[in-house]
């Protein structure tokens, strides 16, 4: 192995290291340790501490590590096993390089590893890092192809080619004709993530409260967005005595053409992976944001084809006013038999009252009996609603909501439970809300003949603090010291807010760019009645425009880049001075005869001029750059 | 790196003689992806299709970025040859079966040129880099097989700088012909044999060496045969002196006559004649050549020899 090859390998190794570094942060410690073994091995080989492995050794190592990963993850083609395998194989590939093609292929692998980062994060900083690492890898590609092995020059060249590439990439990105939905099925690479429970039972919501993860971000496009906001997630219609469950998946979109849409508002949501099919929306969503997402009868959004396994961004149209339709069905009255006899008994006393009165009575019951809103409710038995309402009176929102809904149904008022989120913290820089899993909440809706489904939050009726504060603030003593309430947090909060806001805009406008946004963009550019042909035409036109723009850039750069040599600049200055004395050099004149002419003219500092011209000749025509002469020229020019 | 495409394209286009010196301009440069380039392209395609299907904007952006890199590297690869100057091509004539040397003199324009590969038939050479405003020399050794007068094999000048994913190349067809002389036979016809072959009425001037009259020593003049230098005198420190013989000896001349050499196979015969010429050239005998269609009067010297050999190289037996 010769020196050049060694240098090439080292740089390819660096490139792969840089590409895989951020991925490691998302890996489990054990996986990182497994990956570090070939890393160390490579370093050992490069520092000549370990011998170069042969083909058989490499094959054995590859198989060994494949088995290790396969056994520790049970499957190989998942995100968490596949990417480490890719990294390990690339590291072994470096040791196997034989020719230029192998070297280039190793660089391509580095690009692949870099790309795998998108399965973990799509933030602005990830993207910036990706571009940085890509520029580095391109530089390495240039390095292995160059003969003089000057990495600085390779980096320069890489930047020179990457800058216009980034510009062209964005043009392609914005104008490449987008489609709605997918071409075919998605492969789910993501891990299981916690999210809102698919059922409501005692403890199902409170278990989320210590979860600090982001649930979603929302930016309201309208000014008058309420402060405390209920975000609808799931409607629970069925109760079996223990658990509330939602309806079967909807088969079609709910028709909302009859609904009053005069006060329609819009917002932009970045929903974090939940592994559920339900999407989150503020108020009452009235339109499906895109194809493949249904608006259910209960006015929540349901993704028909996929679980939300990756960050999902969408524009939402919603209203704060409850849509009147649809009317309650049998399921909204139904209760399991032989559960909670005391509650049933109480409700039966109210049965003959009008609905409004029943609701009021129910609220009064929760308000006036010293109910305690707590994170640590006691363990309840089979008739947990009875126990909660009449015995322990301690519970979290799911207890309040399910008890109230039960009570209403028992008294003959149609009721259901809504699962979602309440509140969130505002980012003042970016003017959007961050809603975390800890903001999960459950509340009720009851049906009134003249008003439709109206919202009642039994928890806030019993303990109004929940409306103004989020759960973490409410239960500060329950959170440990590692929470985000440490003192330093307040100090760095403005900075994190700015970073958060930058990320939001990045996500909203770039990562969230889709068919609809492209449509808007093209409409803004004056393209009406879009179809595929028109879009393609715009795409081609935008590429041409981009190329012209870049070409202009190249020309300008060339003009700027073609700086005159310093000695020429000095000589031109000198000529200007001489011109006033009618002693400038003719084009056809040689330097020596020019010096002679000046001497003969009898000008006073002809010796200086002679030396100046001689220095110029030396600076201009010597083989090596003659900085001394340039210095001399400058000094003399001042004197003349 | 193997150059496959250039050869395929080369066979499709008409050969055009390159006027030298020439500067490589845009129209003369061909560009195609190399194999790693095709791998790179498929990597991009995989990323693109996957991201497009999943509506993953990050992946899309990245694939567009790599694609743009690919596009711009076409330009960069073209620039690696653009404005390269080919000043001259020096083609050496040689005997069939030996390697013929070709020198190509290049100079860079205002930009540094890197990784230039030059190829003619199976022979290959590489110039690592030419600094801006300077020149370089590339030397190729091409195999020769059969005697004859040939167009020089097309020279391919190529570069896959800077990223190795594209290969740009240009063809160079030097205006000169390459003359491949017949391979010299092991033994030629000796001067005495040739003398015996002469026609009866021709002058018989070859004398026995012993009869040569030694006239004395004289000073060395340019063009004198090395064999006639008196090394004895030189070792005594008397400088270069030439042994002078009688004038008759210098007039010695012989004709190589095609018809009198009794070899049936033309090529073998040419080889033998070739060796004979080489032998005669290194001796002091002036020689002429008579073959069907050509008659060269007896003379001596490099030009004469080359002329004779060229006649042999281009000989056609009707």
Parts with pLDDT < 50 across at least 5 consecutive residues of chain A: 480-485
Described by strand count, sense and barrel closure, the largest sheet of chain B is:
5 strands, antiparallel
Strand content of chain A: 5-15%
Amount of helix of chain A: 40-55%
Measured between the Cα atoms of the first and last residue of chain B, the distance is 45 Å
Main structural class of chain B? alpha+beta
Counting DSSP E segments of at least 2 residues, the number of strands of chain B comes to 17
Derived structural class of chain A:
alpha+beta
DSSP strand count of chain A: 17
User: Which outline of chain A best applies?
Assistant: elongated
Round the Cα radius of gyration of chain A to an integer and report it: 36 Å
Main β-sheet, spatial strand arrangement of chain A: 7-10-4-1-15-14
Helix count, DSSP H or I runs of 4 or more residues of chain A: 21
- The average pLDDT score of chain B comes to 83
Give the terminus-to-terminus CA distance of chain A. Answer: 61 Å
Order of helices and strands of chain B: HEEHHEEEEEEEEEEHEHEHEHEEH
Largest sheet features of chain A: 6 strands, antiparallel
The most extensive contact between chains is: A-B, 48 and 39 residues
Write down the overall geometry of chain B.
Answer: elongated
The total tally of domains of chain B equals: 2
Could you explain the architecture of this structure?
With about 650 residues, chain A is α+β, with helices and mostly antiparallel strands. Chain A folds into four domains: about 5-175; about 205-490, no CATH class; about 525-560; about 565-640, no CATH class. In chain A, about 50% of the residues lie in helices and about 15% in strands. Chain A has 21 helices and 17 strands. In chain A, strands 7-10-4-1-15-14 form a six-stranded antiparallel β-sheet, with helices on one face. In chain A, a hairpin with a 4-residue loop joins strand 2 and strand 3 (about 245). Chain A is elongated, with a radius of gyration of 36 Å. Chain A starts with a helix and ends with a helix. Mean pLDDT of chain A is about 85; it is low at about 480-485. Chain B is of the alpha+beta class. Chain B folds into two domains: about 5-180, no CATH class; about 190-315, no CATH class. Helix content of chain B is about 30%, strand content about 30%. Chain B has helices at about 5-10, 35-55, 55-80, 190-195, 230-235, 245-250, 265-280, 300-315, and strands at about 20-25, 30-35, 85-90, 95, 100-105, 115-120, 125-130, 135-145, 150, 155-160, 165-170, 175-180, 215-220, 240-245, 255, 285-290, 295-300. Chain B has a five-stranded antiparallel β-sheet with strand order 2-11-10-6-7, with helices on both faces. Chain B has a four-stranded antiparallel β-sheet with strand order 1-3-5-8, with no helix packed on it. In chain B, strands 4-12-9 form a three-stranded mixed β-sheet. In chain B, strand 10 and strand 11 form a beta hairpin. At the A-B interface, helix 5, helix 6 and helix 7 of A face helix 2 and helix 3 of B.
């Amino acid at each position: 192995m010769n020196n050049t090859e060694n240098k090439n390998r080292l740089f390819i190794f660096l490139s792969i290291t840089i590409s895989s570094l951020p991925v490691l942060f998302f890996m489990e410690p054990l996986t990182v340790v497994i990956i570090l073994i070939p890393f160390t091995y490579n370093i050992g080989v490069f520092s000549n501490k370990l011998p170069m492995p042969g083909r058989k050794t490499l094959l054995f190592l590859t198989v060994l590590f494949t088995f290790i990963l396969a056994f520790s993850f049970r499957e190989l083609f998942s995100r968490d096993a596949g990417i480490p395998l890719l990294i390990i194989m690339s590291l072994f590939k470096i040791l196997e390089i034989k020719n230029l093609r192998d070297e280039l292929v190793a660089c391509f692998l580095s690009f692949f590893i870099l790309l795998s980062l998108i399965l973990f994060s799509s933030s602005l900083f990830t993207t910036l890092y990706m571009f940085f690492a890509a520029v580095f890898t391109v530089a390495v590609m240039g390095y292995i192809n160059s003969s003089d092995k000057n990495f600085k020059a390779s980096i320069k060249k890489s930047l020179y080619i990457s800058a216009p590439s980034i510009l062209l990439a964005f043009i392609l990105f914005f104008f490449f004709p987008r489609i709605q939905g997918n071409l075919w099925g998605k492969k789910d690479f993501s891990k299981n993530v916690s999210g809102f429970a698919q059922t409501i039972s005692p403890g199902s919501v409170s278990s989320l409260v210590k979860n600090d993860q982001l649930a979603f971000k929302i930016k309201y496009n309208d000014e008058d967005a309420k402060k405390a906001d209920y975000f609808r997630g799931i409607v629970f219609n069925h109760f079996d005595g223990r658990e509330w469950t939602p309806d079967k998946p909807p088969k079609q979109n709910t028709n909302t053409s009859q609904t009053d849409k005069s006060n329609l508002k819009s917002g932009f949501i970045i929903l974090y992976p939940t592994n559920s099919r339900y999407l989150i929306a503020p108020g009452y969503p009235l339109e499906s944001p895109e194809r493949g997402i249904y608006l259910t009868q209960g006015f929540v959004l349901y993704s028909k084809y996929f679980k939300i396994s990756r960050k999902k961004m969408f524009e939402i149209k919603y209203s704060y006013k409850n849509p009147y339709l649809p009317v309650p069905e049998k399921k909204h009255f139904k209760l399991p038999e032989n559960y909670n006899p005391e509650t049933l008994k109480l409700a039966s006393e109210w049965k003959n009252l009008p609905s409004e009165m029943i609701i009021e009575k129910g609220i009064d019951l929760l308000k006036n009996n010293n109910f305690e809103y707590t994170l640590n409710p006691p363990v309840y038995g089979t008739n947990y609603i009875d126990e909660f309402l009449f015995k322990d009176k301690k519970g979290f929102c799911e207890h309040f909501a399910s008890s109230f809904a039960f009570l209403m149904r028992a008294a003959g008022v149609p009721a259901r439970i809504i699962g979602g989120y309440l509140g969130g913290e505002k980012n003042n820089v970016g003017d959007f809300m961050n809603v975390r899993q800890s903001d999960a909440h459950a509340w009720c809706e009851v049906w009134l003949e003249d008003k439709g489904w109206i919202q009642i939050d039994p928890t806030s009726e019993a303990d109004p603090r929940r409306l103004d504060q989020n759960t973490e603030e409410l239960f500060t003593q329950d959170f440990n010291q590692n929470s985000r309430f440490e003192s330093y947090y307040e100090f760095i909060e403005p900075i994190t807010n700015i970073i958060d806001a930058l990320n939001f805009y990045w996500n909203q406008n770039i990562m969230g760019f889709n068919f609809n946004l492209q449509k808007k963009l093209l409409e803004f550019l004056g393209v009406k009645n879009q179809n595929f042909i028109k879009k393609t035409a715009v795409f081609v036109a935008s590429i041409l425009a981009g190329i012209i723009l870049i070409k202009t850039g190249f020309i300008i750069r060339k003009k700027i880049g073609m700086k005159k040599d310093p000695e020429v600049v000095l000589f031109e200055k000198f000529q200007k001075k001489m011109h006033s004395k009618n002693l400038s050099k003719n084009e056809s004149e040689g330097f020596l005869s020019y010096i002679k002419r000046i001497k003969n003219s009898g000008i006073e500092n002809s010796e200086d001029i002679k030396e100046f011209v001689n220095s110029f000749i030396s600076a201009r025509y010597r083989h090596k750059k003659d900085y001394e002469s340039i210095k001399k020229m400058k000094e003399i020019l001042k004197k003349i | 790196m193997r150059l496959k495409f250039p050869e395929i394209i080369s066979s499709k286009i008409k050969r055009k003689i390159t006027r030298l010196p020439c500067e490589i301009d845009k129209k003369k440069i061909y560009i195609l992806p190399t194999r790693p380039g095709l791998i790179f392209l498929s990597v991009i395609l995989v990323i693109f299709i996957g991201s497009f299907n999943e509506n993953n904007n990050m992946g899309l952006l990245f694939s567009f970025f790599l694609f743009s890199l690919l596009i711009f590297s076409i330009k960069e690869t073209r620039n690696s040859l653009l404005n390269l100057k080919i000043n001259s091509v020096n083609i050496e004539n040689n005997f069939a079966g030996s390697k013929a040397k070709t020198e190509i003199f290049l100079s860079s324009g205002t930009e540094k040129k890197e990784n230039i590969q030059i190829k003619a038939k199976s022979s290959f050479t590489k110039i690592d880099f030419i600094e801006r405003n300077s020149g370089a020399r590339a030397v190729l050794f091409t195999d020769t097989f059969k005697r004859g007068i040939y167009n020089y094999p097309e020279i391919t000048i190529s570069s896959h700088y800077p990223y190795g994913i594209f290969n740009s190349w240009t063809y160079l067809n030097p205006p000169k012909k390459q003359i491949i002389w017949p391979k010299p036979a092991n033994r030629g016809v000796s001067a005495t044999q040739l003398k015996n072959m002469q026609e009866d009425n021709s002058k018989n001037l070859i004398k026995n060496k012993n009869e040569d009259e030694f006239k004395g020593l004289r000073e060395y003049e340019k063009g004198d045969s090395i064999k006639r230098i008196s090394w004895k005198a030189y070792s005594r420190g008397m400088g270069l002196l030439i042994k002078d013989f009688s004038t008759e000896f210098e007039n010695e001349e012989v004709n190589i006559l095609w018809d009198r050499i009794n070899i049936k196979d033309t090529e073998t015969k040419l080889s033998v004649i070739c060796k004979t010429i080489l032998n005669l050239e290194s001796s002091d005998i002036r020689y002429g050549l008579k073959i069907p269609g050509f008659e060269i009067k007896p003379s001596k010297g490099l030009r004469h020899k080359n002329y004779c050999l060229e006649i042999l190289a281009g000989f056609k037996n009707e």
